[in-house]
Amino acid sequence: MRRYGKHTDEDDIRSRPNRKGNRPRTNIRPKHEEAVEGMVVTVDRGRLTCLVEDRLVTAMKARELGRKAAVVGDRVAIVGDLSGEKDTLARIVRIAPRSSVLRRTADDDDPYERVVVANADQLAIVTALADPEPRPRLIDRCLVAAYDGGLEPLLVLTKSDLAPPNELLELYGTLGVPYVVTSREELESGEAVERVRKQLDGKITAFVGHSGVGKTTLVNALVSLDRRRSTGVVNSVTGRGRHTTTSARAIPLPGTAGWVVDTPGVRSFGLHHVDPSRVIKAFPDLEPGTEGCPRACSHDEPDCALDQWVADGHADPARLYSLRRLLATRERNEDD
Fold first, then answer.
1. DSSP symbol at 280
2. Most buried of 30, 109, 127, 206 (most Cβ within 10 A)?
3. Strand pairing partners for 266?
4. Pick from 312, 311, 318, 320: nearest CA to 280
5. Radius of gyration of the chain, Cα coordinates, nearest whole angstrom
6. pTM, whole model, 2 decimals?
7. Are 152 and 202 in contact (CB under 8 A)?
């Protein structure tokens, strides 16, 4: 039986829908010209909290970004509901190029790198002088990650009331890394807080450290009361701290233009992703001497030109020793 008249048009024709619901693929992506800029302050199970102007907005990553993930510190473009009200959800449609990246791998054999923080200016390496004992190899690895990722390192030594800092400061003196020494009493009185704050003003600073070194305690002393995080204690048997910070979080410093990023405590810091040739850039007094090195020189072999460079008086031998110690830490376990 004929269903339609003699003269039909497109509106008269009923098309059967595609049961799979597939849409034609296209390389054209929306420009989202109305997108608003924001900063990622925390990530939790696929939901990202972003600071947009003066309010916090919950967002998710747009499908067109593919596998590209946003991390704390990322500058992003956001569309959708930007009111920040409960049960609202926006979309992140662009991630701006990063000025710096702090990355780590689970261990030196793991090829999968994890971006911890983006766009930070500074890496504060928090180390207790006792309870738990300092781990220089872990400090070395954090320094390598900072130099590789474009962050300026800052050494923060806590619990100086339990042990003196002299030995550790002597070990890192030749690197010229700025440092702050704190004690429990100084934290309680606020004296140490002011010294640390001066190093952070106007910068985005990521805090890293072994569990139990007092990293989150220090962060809590720096930020306002309503933004503080829970802390734990050191196990008296193992000498290790308990993880209380489970995700990275950016927190503004009151009264300044600075930010701190509190990160989960680490027990290892893999450097599989690090290209040793980039570490030398943190040693401007040694870098010119590498011009005479053989191709793919590890800077710790008989033909390395840095030995002659130092012998000719262009740099302090202690600086070459520090460089080689940092490069070698990629091949050693930080528990050594």
1. G
2. 206
3. 210
4. 320
5. 26
6. 0.80
7. no
